[in-house]
Structures are given as structure tokens and as C-alpha cells.
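TL;DR need C-alpha cells for one chain.
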Amino acid sequence: MGCGVADGAERDIAQAQQVQSVRRQAAQTWFLGIIAFAVVLFLLVQAKFILISLVIAIILFSLTVDAINWVAGVQFGRLRIPLSLAAIVAFSMIAAGLFVIAALVVSQANTVVMSVIVYADQVQRAVIDLAGIFGPEAQAAARGMLRQVEIAPWLRGAAGQAGQVVSATILITLFVGFLFAERIRFSTKLVNLFGDADRAARAERIVGSIIHRINRYLLVKTLVSVVTALLVWAVARFFGLELAGPLAILTFVLNYIPNVGSIAATVIGALIAFVQFGDPWFALGILGIITAIQFTVGQVIDPLLLGRALRLSSFGIIVSLAFWAAVWGVAGMFLAVPIMVAIMIVSSHIPALRPMAVILSREGLPDTDLDLAGRVSRKG
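>> reply
TL;DR here they are.
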């Protein structure tokens, strides 16, 4: 009987030790995870210029993959365009487009800087008059605040940002070139990496799904942004706004930022109208017109073309915007949705990370391997 009690006590002690060991391992895992997250976050912040350029290069490269494969498959009698020639043409077009965009951004930045210098006094008077709506105290506070504002540091910062655009363009072009050079060996590298042709094919399907989703999102967003920018430019020209060109370009760029971008572009348009003419009712009219344009294009045309291609949680998009804005600034806000798409798709095919994919998806139903197989069969 004493032996039985002793054996039971030993079992209880062993079970207690096992529970403590499991808890200790769980605590170590959480601790290591926190350290790893902190290290990754530190690297994301410190190397943000290179990483942002790399992510943009990967997105541009992914946009051209399907087009290159289609061009290489076109036949003219017995002749077929070589894959290498199609890749060279695509790379040349991307490089030329990047430098044209960089030149356009720099020129419009110079226009904005010169306009700020010309309209500096007028802006101050407009802000003071606007603050006067809330009473003399608010007007005095606005006047005191504007006295402390220095335009020179802002202008130097704008010039520095323009210089960074040129540097980033060169770096992105180099990254895209190396990605084109490596694409031929991508499938072989996957097989050697996983050591299994089936697992490599599954990874390639996941990458293809990410590319497909991001490409459709960017193409639809580009079309919607172009239409919105043209309409805003037409409205600005019709009402005689001097910064119609920069406002249209700013609208085009900001529309890539979900939810927040269209609001910011609309408010900026109204502020430009108010500063130039000094009439709050005229500015409110411009605000209403641009709001109507943004709502019609963003809430009608955008969902009609995009459909269920993303299936992302609206709350997840806001959180992603906030996180990447804190890490990478404005550039992070532009890249937040593509990065979120990639994370959701990858997480949906890793059992340990599938809860994250469920949270990020709109209906809680992220892709599965069957979805990927069905998409591949439809393409075939």
C-alpha cells in the first residue's frame, strides 16, 4: 500500500514537472518571438530605403511576368518571339517609365515649391480668416502659430525628397534588372530549395496566386486613379485653379492609399481653392464636387472592377496602413495592401499561421490548396 502511494506521488511529481516544462517552453517561445519581432522591426526601419525600393521592384516585376509569357507565346507563322527578347523589351519599358515618372515628380515638386513661395503670405491670411470663424481668440492663436512656422526647412526637405526619388528610381531599376535575370532559374531554385517537386510546385502556385491578386488590384487601382485624376484636373481647370496639374497628380498618387488617400486628396483640393480665391463657399463647392467624383468612382467603379479579388478585412486594411505608415512612412501606406495580400495568402497555407489569414480575410475564408489548384486548372 505504501508503495502504491509512493508511486502515485512520483507520478504526480512527474506530471507537475512535465506541465512546468511545457509552460517554460511556451514562455521561451513567446519571449523569442518578441525578440525576433523587435529585431525584424528594427531592420525594417533602419533599411527602409533599400527595402522599399526592393518591394516596389518586386511588384513591378510581377506586373510584367504574365505579359512577358504571353508575348513569348505569340507566333508569327513559324517564328516566335524569344523569351529573353520579351524580357529585355519589358525591362527597357519599365526603366523608361520609372525615369519619366521621376522627372515628372521632380518637376511638379518644383512647381509646388515655387507656388508655396508665391502664395506664402496669401496662405497665412487665408488661415487667419478661416480661424476667424471660430472667434477672435482662435484667430489670434492662428496668427501666433503661423509666426512660428518656418518655410525654409520645409523647402529644403522637399528638395531632399526629390533627390531621394531619383536615387530610388536608379535602385529600383537595378533590382528589376536582376529579377529579370534570375526569373529563368526560379523554378529550378524552388525544386532545389524544397528538395521535392510537389512542394516546389505548391510554392510556385502560392507565388502565382500572390502575383495574380496584386496585379489585379494594382491594375484596377491604376485605372480608377487615372479616371479620378482626369476628372479632378478637368474640374480644377474649369474653375481656374492654378495648381490643376499638381492636384491631378497628387489625386492619382493618393488614390493608391485605401480610404485615407481619397479623403486627403479631396481636402487638399478644397484648400488649394480656398488659398487661391479666399472664398470659403467656393472652397466648399470644390470640396463637394471632388467628393462626388471620389465617391462615384471609388464606391461604384472600383468595387465593380475589383470584385472579390482581394477579400481583405476592412479593419485589417486600416491596421496595415497604420503599421506600415509608422514603419516606412508614406511609402509604407502605398505598399500596405500588397504586403497584406502576400501575408494573407502565405499564412493561409501554413497551418500554424492560418488564424492570421482568417483574421485578415474579409469573410474569414482565405485561400486553400484546392482554391489554388482550381485557379491553375482554369488557367490551363
